[in-house]
Amino acid sequence: MAPPKYLTGDKAGIEEFLSRFDVFLFDCDGVLWSGDHLFPHVPETIEMLRSKGKRLVFVTNNSTKSRADYKKKFDQMGIPAEVEEVFGSSYSAAVYIARILKLPAPKNKVFVLGESGVEQELDAEGVRYCGGTDPAFRRDIEPEDFINIANGSALDPEVGIVLAGLDFHLNYLKMSVAFQYLQRGAVFLATNIDSSLPMAHSLFPGAASAGAGVAKAIGKEPLSLGKPSQAMMDAVEGKFQFDRSRTCMVGDRMNTDIQFGIDGKLGGTLAVLTGVSKKEDFLAEDAQTVPTAYIDSLGSLLG
Ligand SMILES: O=C(O)[C@H](O)[C@H](O)COP(=O)(O)O
Ligand SMILES: [Mg+2]
């Protein structure tokens, strides 16, 4: 595997690298921002790429927000972007459920472990759901809950899918209801399998951590619809129609972003060192996932 090219400070190298691609798929957390902290020169860099006629697509695994929510965040942070350019894991999961899985009614409702981003995208695809942000689930489990969950009186008979995403309000009650639906044959899906979440310049439990308890209980892993899933790549390509050989994936995480680009046989991948992965992760002799090139921060592309 060719060693990745280090581009920071290399004006000619950056020009040559950018000239290879017409389309850039951008990760968000750890590349554009860390939570509500915008990294330096991100708006200018996005502007620079647009001025060179490059097409941009924002492909995030963060399922807590919908495409509309991301448009608001882009506007708040002064990043020039359109809602149509966003393709999140919550949208990917909703499209998969509505247009590919297509379980027969009435047993096609989704029990959500996640935040409003998932609910909004399910709504947009006309998929019914329960759980999620419903305040009825934001409480401790009570003795009678065990009985009502076990005898099914607390369950919705139309639930046929359990969808696990990043859930900041996860608790034992929600996990117990999800586990019960899975024991009764529900399909087990996840928006994404990131083990950690880059926030406030540190790391927090990721979406996979949120679903891990239920996965352990049922003894199987969910099917993930986020990066590096090629079901997501096919959906992104289907929506944005691009030549993979002229497309580059930009990300901060090796086992999601960069693997997504490599498995998708894209023309190249660019690692940014402001998020989860460190350069030691891909410069190591036995590194499994190696990007085409890397930079200290997205703003380094300004040279
Ligand atoms: O736990 C998560 O869901 C991820 O850490 C987070 O969503 C990553 O988002 P991305 O870097 O793909 O924008
Ligand atoms: Mg990221």
TrEMBL record:
InterPro entries registered for this protein in UniProt: HAD-like_sf, HAD-SF_hydro_IIA, HAD_sf, PGP_euk
UniProt catalytic activity: 4-nitrophenyl phosphate + H2O = 4-nitrophenol + phosphate + H(+)
Binding site residues for substrate: 227
SUPFAM superfamilies membership: HAD-like
Top class in the EC scheme: hydrolase
Highest taxon, organism lineage: Eukaryota
Pfam families, per the entry: Hydrolase_6, Hydrolase_like
One Gene Ontology CC term in the entry: cytoplasm
EC number annotated for this UniProt entry: 3.1.3.41
Catalytic-site annotation from UniProt: 27 (proton donor), 29 (proton donor)
Name used for this protein in its record: 4-nitrophenylphosphatase
Source organism of this protein record: Lophiostoma macrostomum CBS 122681
